[in-house]
Amino acid sequence: MNRRGRILVTGATGRVGRQVVAQLMDAGAEVRALARDPHAARLRADIEVMRGDLTQPHTLHAPLDGVDAVFLVWPFATAEGMSAVLDVVAEHARRVVYLSSAAVRDHEQRAEQLIEQTGVEWTFLRPHVFAANALRWAAQVRAAGAVHGPYGAAAMAPIHQHDIAAVAVQALTGNGHGGAIYELTGPQTLSQSDQVRIIGEVIDRPVHWIETPAEVERQQMLELGWPGAAVDGILHAQAELVTKPGPITSTVEQATGTPARTFREWVIDHSSAFRDT
Ligand SMILES: NC(=O)c1ccc[n+]([C@@H]2O[C@H](COP(=O)([O-])OP(=O)(O)OC[C@H]3O[C@@H](n4cnc5c(N)ncnc54)[C@H](OP(=O)(O)O)[C@@H]3O)[C@@H](O)[C@H]2O)c1
Question: Using DSSP, how many helices (H) and how many strands (E) does the chain show?
Answer without folding.
Answer: 11, 11
